[in-house]
Write a structure and sequence with these properties.
The protein folds into 2 domains: about 150 residues, Beta Barrel (Lipocalin); about 160 residues, no CATH class. It is about 20% helix and about 30% strand. The protein has 5 helices and 16 strands. The strands form 4 sheets. It has a 6-stranded antiparallel β-sheet with strand order 1-6-7-8-9-16, with no helix packed on it. A 4-stranded antiparallel β-sheet has the order 2-3-4-5, with no helix packed on it. It is globular, with a radius of gyration of 21 Å. This is VCBS repeat-containing protein. InterPro entries: Integrin_alpha_N. It comes from Leptolyngbya subtilissima DQ-A4.
Length: about 325
């Protein structure tokens, strides 16, 4: 990669990462020790943060984009009471964040690691390490677009929620910019994330109102990608128990000439068929994701958690 291209890439990534990414999506509280890495960060050797019995030691080397292969350039060592318990490596393309934060108010901090793989929107990986049963147990999220998500205690009960979006809706019925995915809210407790989205009605209603405002905004009327917003709006309202009303709103406002998302493909990437219109395609998509059951009944408690199986190798 030439120097000019690399500098341009840095500038683009900086504009995307400033704010949500560089803030790690975590509360900016002074008592939460953190290490942040961006495109200007030089090599780091054994930089440490600690809180209580938990200590994290980080080493980082900027990626060499001229190399034929991109290797792991981030090493994280996790200590408990000054005893090394886990060492793991990852790849951080111009961004990484490591933070100690007590997600469930049990007196022991979790280690939250975020790494950015590169690209305009994708991908941000989030891993939570919890000290349980005399070891650090990881919970991995699947790669998330955009800023990934934010940790917030939405109801003030001392348990943090990870507030994110259902990434399946990006690009399905419109461009990334034209998509408005429904909310996914995960509550952390005892080393696990539970999908508690339907419990946070006020949050869901605010997002749904913003979706509706976007569709009804006169400045949005001439845009051809409103179906990307309407797809999220229907799913958001399924979570709220307002499926019928949202479906009728969609029928009254969808863009009938937009064919984005109407084609279906088999596992080999070959064209398998074409839906006749957006409502038919959306109905099938909501069934595929579990928002609607096989009989078309709404499922407000569908689990859309991004938690995935183990992906990192331990050393």
């Amino acid at each position: 990669m030439s120097l000019d291209i690399r500098q341009l890439m840095k500038a683009i990534l900086k504009s995307l990462l400033i704010g949500s990414l560089l803030a790690l999506g975590l509360p900016a509280l002074a008592e939460n020790p953190r290490i942040e890495i961006d495109s200007d960060t030089e090599a780091i050797s054994d930089q440490a943060i600690e809180q209580g019995a938990i200590r994290v030691v980080v080493s980082y080397t900027p990626l060499d984009y001229a190399a034929e292969e991109v290797s792991d350039n981030l090493t994280i060592q996790l200590f408990h009471n000054n005893e090394l318990k886990l060492s793991t490596t990852d790849t951080a393309a111009m961004f990484a964040g490591i933070e100690l934060i007590d997600l469930d108010s049990d007196g022991t901090s979790e280690v939250v690691v975020q790494t950015y793989s590169g690209g305009a929107h994708c991908c941000l990986a989030t891993t939570t390490y919890t000290w349980q049963n005399e070891q650090f147990n990881p919970v991995y999220f699947g790669y998330l677009d955009g800023s990934g998500g934010q940790f917030k205690d939405l109801n003030g009960d001392g348990l943090m929620e990870f507030v994110t979006l259902d990434n399946s809706f990006f690009y399905t019925f419109s461009s990334y910019a034209g998509s408005y995915p429904p909310s996914v809210i995960l509550t952390y407790e005892n080393g696990e994330y539970r999908d508690t989205t339907p419990q946070f009605t006020n949050y869901l209603e605010d997002a749904a109102a913003d979706m509706r405002f976007t569709v009804e905004d006169p400045e949005f009327a001439d845009r051809s990608d409103k179906n990307g917003v309407l797809a999220g709006y229907v799913a958001q309202n399924i979570r709220l128990g307002n499926y019928r009303e949202a479906w009728l709103f969609m029928l009254a406002h969808y863009e009938r000439t937009d064919d984005w998302g109407l084609e279906t493909y088999n596992d080999q990437g070959e064209l398998a068929g074409t839906y006749p219109d957006f409502p038919t395609a959306l109905y099938a998509f909501l069934q595929e994701l579990g928002y609607l059951d096989t009989n078309g009944r709404p499922q407000p408690t569908v689990d859309r958690s991004p938690v995935e199986a183990e992906r990192a190798s331990f050393q």
